[in-house]
Every structure is written in structure tokens, then in C-alpha cells.
# Entry
Amino acid sequence: MDSVLDDLVASNRVLAREGVLDGFGHVSARNPHDTKRYFISRSRSPALVERADLVELDLDDRPVRPTDAKLYAERVIHGAIYKARPDVMSICHNHAPPVVAFCAAGIDMVPVCHLGAVMGQRVPSWDSRDEFGDTDLLVSTPEQAASLAATLADNWVVAMRRHGATVVGRSVRELTFRAVHLKLNAELQLQAIQMGPLSPLTAGEIELSSRTNLSDAVVGRIWEYWTSQG
Amino acid sequence: MDSVLDDLVASNRVLAREGVLDGFGHVSARNPHDTKRYFISRSRSPALVERADLVELDLDDRPVRPTDAKLYAERVIHGAIYKARPDVMSICHNHAPPVVAFCAAGIDMVPVCHLGAVMGQRVPSWDSRDEFGDTDLLVSTPEQAASLAATLADNWVVAMRRHGATVVGRSVRELTFRAVHLKLNAELQLQAIQMGPLSPLTAGEIELSSRTNLSDAVVGRIWEYWTSQG
Amino acid sequence: MDSVLDDLVASNRVLAREGVLDGFGHVSARNPHDTKRYFISRSRSPALVERADLVELDLDDRPVRPTDAKLYAERVIHGAIYKARPDVMSICHNHAPPVVAFCAAGIDMVPVCHLGAVMGQRVPSWDSRDEFGDTDLLVSTPEQAASLAATLADNWVVAMRRHGATVVGRSVRELTFRAVHLKLNAELQLQAIQMGPLSPLTAGEIELSSRTNLSDAVVGRIWEYWTSQG
Amino acid sequence: MDSVLDDLVASNRVLAREGVLDGFGHVSARNPHDTKRYFISRSRSPALVERADLVELDLDDRPVRPTDAKLYAERVIHGAIYKARPDVMSICHNHAPPVVAFCAAGIDMVPVCHLGAVMGQRVPSWDSRDEFGDTDLLVSTPEQAASLAATLADNWVVAMRRHGATVVGRSVRELTFRAVHLKLNAELQLQAIQMGPLSPLTAGEIELSSRTNLSDAVVGRIWEYWTSQG
# Structure
């Protein structure tokens, strides 16, 4: 358990330093010993999150233990996806700028290099307008969260029109790796499409690259690097 | 009062670190106890401003107490807007590079993501040439400042052609949030228009997102983050 | 010997700080006293590499001395090129983002300024698909590495489609200089082609500039700078 | 005299930190008490330059006092311009990336904001090919330097095709201000031309803005900021 909580705190810091999270966004981890519960920070900027900031919520996003802590309004994203996806053990909602640029333009993100393959075969796009009309764009009701989870389906990333992205993984480290490389791939895709037509990875390359990139050896190597950076 | 002055010093530092202000630009706060007066730094680069640098000016931009301090030439912007807009409690004039790029190109800034909604429904553009012909582009006379304030009208941001922007808020923290996210939205809009036609927020989304983003909870969360960064 | 090992450790750090290597990528140096062997770090992020992380491998990429250290999967690139190119004394495989953008777009990198001339007359491009079909894009078999080395031929850089680049040099310092300026030139080429048709260096200019840039005086000047940066 | 030497050391550091100079480039100051001589660092990366690195050269770029120090090959640029332009008291040759992008593309730099006005009415472009054919692109002979100075004529900046720029000023601080804002304006111009047709400053605006920007008050304000940054 301790290792999950340590990884969750580290992920907050790493994602902040790598430019995936800034003052906003949040990352959570499912409780491996009680899969109907998950851990997430109280409402606090990710760069500042410490172990004592973590709270445990049920899948309806209510604190398991009484608390005065203010909670993220968009925590409903986490509960809805943990309900819909038993394989998912960690979730990050973020506004990484290169990713938001694609969500603003309404252009699909696709893997243009081997590390980008971790986004998976397809990144579906969810538009709050489709079902909910004019909103503040936040996903703050269970209905909105369930709709987002349905669009995510069995993929690893869902783009959120004019807002950001929600990324999922089978562990905190896998989730962190995917969120960082989604952002890096978006930067590359933006540069590449200014030079000519895209030639993204094939379905086979995505499958094979993704498996290699998410191996313990590869994720472990960069995790050591990320967590050593002050 | 102390809290306003503390926030004003912090805003100078935050806006410098976030790349809104560099060696130039300035930020002010209206005196909440005497609304015909405002506080602003003596002429000094924002990153260096300390409490002792603050001076109090009347709405004709004259020091309330005798001082030898050199003052910003463009302080007239502040007096003119505080006169025209009783609701405005804080003002920032800046040359944030992504914002100036739009002012150089003569392209309207529009919200392309939920956080950008804080710029408001419309960002009018002021061109010093229209009334004043060839100038040094600085707003340094009461007439120029009054013209700028008239173009701002009841909006939250006025773009200044080939120069920068002036941003206003109902508090120092709201102003700071708006100035930072105006800059971030400009970066995103620039990237998005290289990929395809824009689909900005609707009027309803701007209204709703802006209200959420400027709530105490949201601004407070990122203010803690910003003021903790060295 | 010590100077080669010191330079190799320094090169890892410099290339990480200059944004050529990040958590991934690797750099090696041939043993000047036994040219059938080379030094490279155990599998570790370049920013963290210390003298004790270096291992010595033969040209079939097997450790010369028994070791428990995990090794880079793509170390086969190094052995294959050292076999094929007796003049090469140092090699770096990297995913520098501006370089990967060109590899994603399938656009040739060419020198657009005098410092970019160090990439040489031509940067051939290798596509793993041509001979090997769908893979994880890593070069991890001797056959793939030999194919890459054949495409490199007698050039100084080989672009790797949707992946990165492999850069070679006649010394660690020359290699480091070339890898950094390949990246800087890619950034400039990307900006320049957004403004108009390219007018790259002539073959004569590439030859003359490259010779000057790779002189001991020029490389020594910037090496002092790079190694002094924390 | 001391103040000139102090400013020259500070300018090396400031221009390095502001991204105008990197490992390469150089900045000099004419001796105000003997206008046939100038000060410049020995061949060293600008970020590292200290008072003890400064040497005094005559206008044929020979050391006034015997020295073993290695000198910049391109110091001939300085002597030639000091000969041709009695009003010039300080010179910087640099490869600031946004400036080199324009020199690679062959596109004229023009002021797109008030601070960019300090580049002056016109930035002529010099191409080493025109008179000297294939070279290593460095300006390393008196003939090349005289040709460059002739193209500079009575302007404040000369663009050097596929290479960089040489900037001049009437003081070290003016020169520093101009070199930094030439770079910032190039970044803005590059972004602006991706959005639509340019509308640069008029000749009158350039004249008036430049005069204001180069006043002691404005330069002094940012000089305090720049020299306070570590």
C-alpha cells in the first residue's frame, strides 16, 4: 500500500515538473486492497501535494473517513472511470498545453513516434456540448462523468474538447509514463503537421511499441530519472 | 489593507515568474478604503518589487505623499481606468509575448479552452494610430489613457495594437489569474489556428466557465501554488 | 583512457542538459587502446550517469567482464557501427524532440546555418518498416543494427523514421558538438520553412564550416562552457 | 573606465542568460579614453567571462599588450565597425536562434512592437557568398569585415545570411537592450506572420519608440533587472 501512496505523491510532482499538470489537474490511484476505493489529493495544486494531502474516496467520490478537506470538483471523473474500467488502477485529468491545443483545434492525436504509441490505437474525443449544451466545461456531475467514461470506452486516453484530457493506466507509473508521452507526442505532431502530411505508426507498431515502452525495465529507467529531479 | 499590499507585491512576482511581465509592465491595486487612490510600484522591474517600492497615487496619477521616486510613465493607464470603471480594483499593463504576437498580427484573441474564458466575451483592440497618429506607442498622456479606457469599456481586457494588453479585475488575485490565463490561451490559440479553423467557446460557456474559474476556491488553489514557487 | 571516460560521463550530462537526451538515449566511446571494445553506461537515464555506471562491451555488445548490470536494449546500434566504421570513436542515439519532428514528418534535415554544417553533406533516413515491417521501432537485433549502419554509410548522422537519430563522431567531444548542433539546426530549419523556401548551405560551405566548427579551438571553447553548467 | 569594463562583463552575462549569446558570440566596448582601441574577452564563452578575461585590442584587432590569450577569430568584425562608425561604442555578434531563423529564411526583420523599434528603420542583410563565394561563413579576414561594415552602413543591425547578426550601439547598455529586443521581436514576428499579413511600425513610430526605449530611464530600469538575475 505504501508503495502506491508513495508513487501517487511522486506522480503529482513528476507530472507537475514535466509540464503535464500545472496549478490544476489531478491524479489518483485505486486502492489495490479494496478496489471500490481510490486515493487522491485534497484540492491542492499537484506540485505541492504531500502524503498528508491524500484522502481515500469511494467510487461515488465520497470520503471514506470524515474530513474537512476541500475536494476537487472534478473528482467524479475518477469514480466513474474506476467503476467502468476494472483494469484501470490510476487516472490523471490534465490540461497539458500541447494536448489542449489539439482539443481546441478538434484534431485527433495520433502516435508519430515510438514513445507516443503508449496513447494506444485511438484517442476518442468527448465534447461536453453534445449531451450537456452550454456548461462551464468542467466534468462535475456523475452524469457528465459517466458520459466521459463511456466515450473513453476501452481506450487509454480521452480528449476533452476545449478542455484537456483524461489518461488512465494499469499502475501509477504506467499512467505517468503515458501522460508525459501523450504530451511529448502532441508537441511533435504539431511540429510535424507544419512540415507535411503525417505518416503515423501502424496498428502493429502501436501494439508492439506500446508493449515495449510499458515494460518494467523501460518505465523503471525513466522513473528513476524523474524522481531524482529535485 | 495589508492584505491588498501583500497581494500586490505577490502579483508582481507571480506575473514575472509566469512570463506575463518581464523587465517592463506594471500592476496596481485600488485602495479599498479610499477608492480615489491606488497603489503601484515606483518605476521598477516587477520581478524586483518589494513592499517598500509601493507608492500611493490619486486618480490623476499624482503621488499622495511627496516622493523622490521615479514613477512609471504609463501610470496614466491606471488612473483613467479606475475613474471609468468603479468595479475595477486591480489593473495590469503587460507585454506578454504570446499576447503581443496577436497584437502584432491584428488578430482577435478568443477563448479556446475553459480557462481562457476569463478574458470575457470580447477583447476589444485599441490602436494608438487611430486618434494619435505616429507616437512612441506608449500611453503616457491623460488623453491617450482616456481613449484606451473608452475602448476597454465594460470588458476585462483591451488589446493594444503593436504593443501589449491591459487587463483589469475586481481583485488583485482575479486580475492575476486573468492575466496569466490570457497569456496561456494566446499560446494555445496560436497553436490551434495552425491546425485548422477555430471553434471557440460559446457565449454561454464563457459566462459559466468564467464564473467557475474566478471562484474563491479555484483562484485560491492556484494562488497557493504560485506564491509557493520561490 | 581516463580522459575518454571522463568525457563520456560529461557527454551524458551535457547532452541531457542541452535537451538532446532525456530519460532515454545513450552515448558510447570506443576504447582507444583496444578498438574492438567500447564503453557505455549500464541502462540508466543519461542525466544520472556516473563513472561507476560505465561498462565495457565487445563489438558484439557483450560485457567484457561479468556483470549483473542491466544493459541498454539498443546497444546493438553501437557495436554494429563501430564494426562498420573504423573512423568512428563515439556514438549517440537520441530522441531530441526537434530531430524527431523531422523523422515524424519524413522531411530531410539540411544545414541552414554555419553551425548546422557539422551534420555533414547528407543525413540519410532509415525506416524500420523497409526491411523489418511492423516492429516496436527499437533497433534491438544485430540484423536491424547492421541495416542501420549500412544506411548511415560514411555519413555522420542517420535519421530514424518515427523514432530519432544516431550521430557519430571521431571523438566524444566532436560527437557531442554534432548532436547538440543537429538539434539546434532542426529547430531553426523548422522555423525557417514556415517563412519561405530554404536556401541551405552549399556543399563547399558545409565542408569549410564543418572543418572550422570541429577544430579543437571551437569545440574546446564550448566544451568549457557546457561542462561548467552545474 | 571601470564602469565600461563592468558593463562589458555584465553584458556578456546578461546576453547569455537572455538567450542572445550561447557558447558562441562576443561583445566588445570601445575604450572611451582612446577611441582607437576596444575591449573584448579572450576567446571564451560569454556566460563565463570575467573581468580578467578582457583584453584591449587596436582597430586592426591586435592586442595592445603582449598576451598568450587565444582571441576570437571573428574579432575583425569589431575593428572594422569601430573604424567605419565613430558613433559606435559597443558591438555584439551573435547567433540568437530566432534571429538566425530569419537569416536562414532570408526574410527581413522589421519592428512589430514598440520595443522592437530599437532595431532601427532598416536591417540590411549581408551574404558572405556575394563577394567571397564558398567560405566557412565566419567573418575572419579584414576584407570580409570591411564588407560587412559597409553593408551595416549607418544602421544599428546587420543580418548575416545563414549565420547570425551583428548589433551595434552608442553604449554597452544600449547595445545590450537592442540585441535582446531584436531577438524578442524576431520571436514575435515569426509568430505574427503565421497568423496573417504584417503591419509593422511606421517610420515615425520607429523613430519615436526607439528614442523612448533607449532613454536612460527605460534602459536603466531593465538593466537593474537583468543584472540582478543571478
